[in-house]
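Q: Hi! First time doing this. I have a protein sequence and I read that you can turn it into a structure. Is that right? Here it is:
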Amino acid sequence: MPDPHRLVDTSAISVETESPLELATRLRRHVEALAGDIGERHVRRPQALHAAEEYIASEFRALGYEVARQTYRAEGVASSNLEVTVPSAGGASEIVLVGAHYDTVPGSPGADDNASGVAGLIELARFLRDAHCARTVKLVAFVNEEPPFFYWGEMGSRVYARAARARGEDIRVMLSLEMLGCYVDAKDSQSYPPLLGMFYPDAGNFIAFVSNLRSRRALAALVRAFKSESDFPAEKLASPAIVPGVSWSDQISFWREGYPAVMVTDTAFYRYRHYHAATDTPEKLDYPRMARVVEGLAKAVRKLADDAE
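A: Yes, that's right. Below is the predicted 3D structure, encoded as structure tokens:
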């Protein structure tokens, strides 16, 4: 029986011409495949981890990309980062890199954390595949972001960032897509680390852009680009990495190698009560608003990639 999602060919749809409903529908399909059909995925469930890897690779290939695998072993399990490249128009070496991790913590199907980020990554690949920007764009699905690998050498983004530095790659900014699917309009639905709540909204209906202090220029440029292309509510924070949550994703691997990096997030446990829980399931996410965020990110990434200095 044909897959109902394949009955209409949307492969040529651009961010300028498609309806928000079409994008929201595709985002939901990706999240349901990863967090519903596959579910909990990590090295202690290697079959599920590899099924997620193959799903992402097959989606990239369906868009016409050649997928490069960076494979290593973690706790004896073959683990792969998946990279696709949108070449620059003139062969420039400068890179804008966007990444999202596809593993979960044990016990959680990981719809928001982080099937939502991976879904956004796949759709960015769709929007950007025919772009001819001044800078190269690389899109990477990272493995093994969650504990017990977080902060340690077998973290997928750590393996990738070290190799990029060893190759001398000129990564001008890295965007870490970390939970994109939860938006709440209710008053007091948003919490913060101590004192920050005095300066930010009390409703969790915005997307947040977060960096360390060394990446504050890259943060400012990304937020300017996003706000020039989208009216979706957005907040930014450049902070010492010690503030709880600021460094808790793949951006830390790039900070450690001296690259500017920014986390794009719905703020995780500061808003989403299903964080790292068995209840982090696909129906919890707000796909229409997630689609608006992804559309804005697609346009912002293209703008950054066209801004070669």
